[in-house]
Amino acid sequence: MYGPYAQSRGPQAARLRQRKAELLRRFPIPDDLLPGSLSLSHLRCGKPTCHCAQAHDPGHPIWTLTFMADRKKRTLHVPKDMVEEVQRRVTAGRQFQDAVREVLTANAELLVLARRQRRKSRP
Description:
Elements lengths: L10 H16 L10 E7 L16 E10 L2 E7 L4 H39 L2
Antiparallel strand pairs: 1-2, 2-3
């Protein structure tokens, strides 16, 4: 794992690592993929002497990773020095999800085809 988030501790972290290890043994899922999306927004800090207080200034850049966990939307501030790595991992995660969807869709389409062929072969 990468970054400061890899050193999480406690019973929940242990359960999550255990579940992840179980899934990785069952399926060849790359272990550094990230779900969700990375977005850039701007924020004004509120200090009257800061450059962001100027009307023409968009504000301070803030990077955020947004994803779903336990049916809840989660957001995580991403430090500027981690943006490139997180973006790479989010992109790889999206590519993996697309590949899985494609395989599942192909399986469903093969089932439909097999069913049609089975009907045609009946007398």
